[in-house]
Specification:
Elements lengths: L3 E6 L5 H10 L5 E3 L2 E6 L1 H10 L5 E10 L3 H9 L15 E6 L6 H19 L15 E6 L2 E7 L21 H10 L8 E3 L6 H10 L23 H11 L9 E5 L2 H13 L6 E5 L13 E4 L7 H18 L6 E6 L4 H5 L5 E7 L2 E8 L6
Helix pairs in contact: 2-7, 3-4, 5-6
């Protein structure tokens, strides 16, 4: 089976996690800003799409080169072996982006790249008229950074954060792959308690349960490459999915709780939990942060509380942070991981974090304030 140069794209700040996931799957990796490079066959492409919890997309690198003129861009694009990836009837939309480059007009860049690909395919397939583009979708991207051109074919389709279980959401939901990143950064072991005290639509507890059962996060959705009959042999997709399903441990008992002060959000979380097939693994309950207490030890708290971006909300949010501090600080065997864009969080919580990690929730800079517990043996 043909080997491809591949990249898994990721949000800024979690590339190292994607690299770790790929290494755990058995791949050699190179971590870069916003992406991780690795190599593999179409089986590996399907495997990565199914298993990556923290990545956005898996792409095949068609080619990369330097280009400062449209002529260079056209000629070097046309020279690539497009026919090895694209059938004559391929639907080939071209997305583009450009940073700090001579070729900064993105619509023109997209048009030139599309024209070069069409020219190459027309020559190879002996077409004198327009290419039909009536077949499967092959989403292409041209990304230029400091005059370096990277041409890729997206194998994922809808971003990997779309697991397929989110039937409803609240006001500012956390993307599923970011929630999974928080679970992984918390170094939680499935035999320990896990609590999200401000769970909203339930994304963090659901991602924890998928992780705890070793369920492939992409198992209940499809990927655009599964329609590529010229590249994906018959039965390969089913084989990879069956393999993934066999690795899930549905018998492990999990102690996962999600709380929220808003009963409406709890209803939404329960609906999403049902859609994910995890009803018996997570307990959702309407409860304010200040009213929670536990006698359990060695647990993990992962929370994405409101940030109080509007001035009118700030006091309420700061009071919430104070309540968190009062309740969580005495829980010395528990580790706490709080994600917020409020850089004054520690002041209101009442203690300095063991460690802070910068993460981007979409375009928003946030910090993960980590308070490490001392486990009782």
């Amino acid at each position: 089976m043909q080997e491809y140069q591949l990249i898994a794209t990721a949000a800024s700040g979690i590339e190292a996690l994607v690299g770790k996931e790929l290494r755990n799957l058995g791949y050699e990796t190179r971590v870069e800003n916003g992406r991780v490079r690795f190599t593999g066959t179409m089986k590996d492409v399907l495997t990565a799409n199914l298993w990556l919890r923290t990545a956005d997309r898996v792409k095949i690198i068609v080619g990369e080169f330097e280009a400062k003129t449209f002529e260079e861009l056209f000629d070097r694009t046309e020279a690539l072996p497009w026919e090895s990836l694209l059938p004559v009837d391929a639907k080939i939309p071209v997305e583009g982006k450009s940073h700090h480059s001579q070729l900064h007009n993105v619509p023109s860049v997209q048009a030139i790249v599309k024209k070069a690909i069409v020219r190459k395919l027309s020559d190879v397939y002996h077409r004198r008229t327009r290419l039909p583009e009536t077949g499967a979708l092959y989403p292409l991207e041209v990304a230029i950074n400091k005059d370096h051109v990277l041409l890729t074919l997206d194998t994922t389709g809808d971003s990997l954060f779309k697991r397929g279980y989110r039937k409803a959401k609240g006001g500012a939901p956390l993307k599923e792959n970011m929630a999974a990143a928080l679970v992984m950064l918390a170094h939680w072991f499935p035999d320990n308690p896990f609590v999200d005290p401000v769970c909203g639509s339930g994304t963090i507890p659901i991602e924890a349960a998928l992780y705890g059962h070793n369920i492939a996060p992409g198992i209940n959705r499809s990927f655009v490459c599964e329609q590529w009959t010229n590249l994906v042999p018959d039965g390969l997709s089913d084989e990879v999915r069956d393999e993934a399903d066999s690795k899930a441990d549905y018998d492990v008992e999990l102690d996962i709780h999600g709380y929220d002060i808003d009963q409406n959000m709890i209803d939404i979380a329960q609906e999403n939990c049902r859609a994910a097939g995890l009803t018996h693994d997570i307990t959702f309950k309407q409860l304010a942060v200040k009213d929670w207490h536990t006698d359990k030890i060695n647990g993990v708290i992962v929370a994405n509380p409101p940030y109080g971006e509007r001035l009118s909300d700030k006091e309420t949010v700061h009071e919430l942070y104070r309540q968190m501090g009062q309740i969580y600080r005495p829980m010395t065997t528990w580790s706490k991981y709080i994600l917020t864009a409020d850089m004054e969080f520690e002041k209101y919580y009442g203690a300095s974090a063991t460690k802070r990690r910068k993460l981007y929730n979409g375009a928003l800079r946030t910090d993960l304030f980590q308070y490490w517990g001392k486990k009782k043996r």
